[in-house]
UniProtKB/TrEMBL annotation:
Native organism: Candidatus Faecivivens stercoripullorum
Stored InterPro entries: DUF3842 (IPR024208)
Record-given protein name: DUF3842 family protein
Domain of life: Bacteria
Pfam family, one: DUF3842
């Protein structure tokens, strides 16, 4: 399975997800893309082999992925303080990949009916969804 993890800002969520996927589901191809260089650098610390930064890698890699994982903002144009461009959000939304979006209630995106869980619990749920 080809898993694409996208994150921005400092890449904390993407790094934690990548570490969990590499540990819990070895043998999958895991690519990470940061919306900025700091996020990419942080996600690389997870041990992934393939990483890139910016809009074009998202546009190119989203259609190739089987699963796309990241904070909900990766599917909303101009989110993450403007780091997610309209092209990035469109590439994520139009990809035929399954999307596992982590409900982070920040950057003016709030999801009604979703409990405010610790990041470790959200990542545990991401791994459970990948196993299905």
């Amino acid at each position: 399975m080809r898993i694409l993890i996208i994150d921005g800002q400092g890449g904390k969520i993407g790094r934690a997800v990548a570490e969990a996927v590499l540990k819990e589901l070895p043998g999958n191809e895991v690519d990470v893309i940061g919306t900025n260089a700091i996020a990419t650098a942080n996600m690389l610390k997870s041990g992934v082999k393939n990483a890139a930064t910016g809009e074009n890698p998202v546009v190119v890699m989203a259609p190739r992925a089987d699963v796309i994982i990241g904070p909900v903002g990766i599917a909303v144009a101009d989110s993450m303080m403007g780091e997610v461009t309209p092209k990035m959000a469109m590439a994520v939304g139009q990809s035929s990949a399954k999307k596992i979006l982590i409900p982070i209630n920040r950057c003016d995106i709030m999801i009604a009916g979703v409990a405010d869980l610790p990041l470790t619990e959200m990542i545990r749920r991401v791994i459970a969804m990948l196993r299905q």
